[in-house]
Amino acid sequence: MRITRVLSASLLMLGLAVSPAVADSTPSPSSSSSSSSSSSADSGAPTQAGTSFRTATEVEQGQTATANGSAGDYLYWSFPADAGQRPTVRATVKLPEAHAAETWQIDVYDGLRRRQACQYGAQTRTAAADTASVELACVLRTVRAWSDPWANDPLPGTYYVRLTVVDLTTADLGLPVETELRVDSKDIGGSAAVDGSLAEPLVPGIAVKSAAEEDGSSASAVLSSIEPDDGWSSGWWSDRWVWTGLGGVLAALAGVGGYSLTRGAGRPTRVPPGA
Q1: Which of 11, 43, 224, 274, by CA, is between 20 and 30 Å from 204?
Q2: Cα 124 from Cα 72, distance rounded (Å)
Q3: How far apart are CA 162 and CA 105, in angstroms?
Q4: How far is residue 180's CA from residue 226's CA, in Å, rounded to a whole number?
């Protein structure tokens, strides 16, 4: 009976410990509605791209940005990425009907304009002659909440995407092209948590206000308004704390169960108390 009571209490405490993590992983109606609203929000997505880091067009994650340009142009976009996210950048270039073979490439830079390596994906691709389109992809490393100054780890903040052609014949230079860009992220969760955080996001976007917006003063760089929907969450909390607490509870229950199994039934009734 004692073992049964111990096991029952263990199962009850285990259920109470797991319930927060299960609640976090259960999809909610708001998440499904947000996905549908993000698809409808594409109507308000940007329809042009910048020509430098300072004029990069801001794009929210989940939006499909479009832009018209010419072969040989440098096209720039920017997007926010927070700690625990693994961003995936996808770009599609629609080419004219007649063209020679050409090679396109996307590069991703962080807020310090350090080029970030792709874990996998077709970052550079060659379109054969008269190919209708070319698709590119870059899956970044998981964004960390904190890193050593000498490291090149992705950190929370603004990221810049540059799309351009790197191999082009002179005859095709300036031909019109249509581009599409989309950024999505996978939430890695506590497995990517580190012991530290940034006080502020890494260069949270740069834009240039016109002289009129600055009340007659010269144009100056200002912080962008773009940021994750729930704000920058870089901090000490992660779901790793849930599993750490759960491990402590299981260890305590294992100790109680082991003690109950090994202590025996107590003093036998045939042995007198004074013996």
Answers
A1: 43
A2: 15
A3: 8
A4: 20
Tokens standing for residue 6: 């111990």
Return d(Cα 49, Cα 65) in angstroms, integer: 8
Q: For CA atoms 241, 243, 246, 250, give the dihedral sign.
A: negative
CB 89 within 8 A of CB 216: no
Structure-block tokens of residue 65:
């940005």
CA–CA separation, 6 vs 256, rounded Å? Answer: 8
| Residues 176, 170: Cα–Cα separation, whole Å | 14
Residue 242 and residue 20 in contact, taking contact as beta carbons nearer than 8 Å = yes
- Tokens for 113, please give them: 């304009």
| Phi/psi at 162 (5° precision) | -120, 125
CA distance 138 to 120: 6
pTM score: 0.69
Question: pLDDT tens for residues 19-43?
Answer: 443 334 333 333 333 344 344 446 6
Residue 53: CA count within 13 A, CB half-sphere: 17
pLDDT average, residue stretch 94-105: 92
- Of 231 and 151, more confident: 151
Sheet strands (E) in 148-202: 157-167, 176-187
Evaluate if residue 113 carries a pLDDT over 80: yes
Beta-carbon contacts of 208 under 8 Å, excluding residues fewer than 6 positions away, are: 54, 55, 219, 220, 221, 222
Q: What is the CA radius of gyration of the chain?
A: 28
Q: H helices within the chain, ranges in order? A: 2-25, 29-40, 240-262
Distance CA 144, CA 138 (A): 18
Tokens coding 219: 């144009």
Q: Determine which of 30-44, 107-121, 158-172, 228-242 has the lowest per-residue pLDDT on average.
A: 30-44
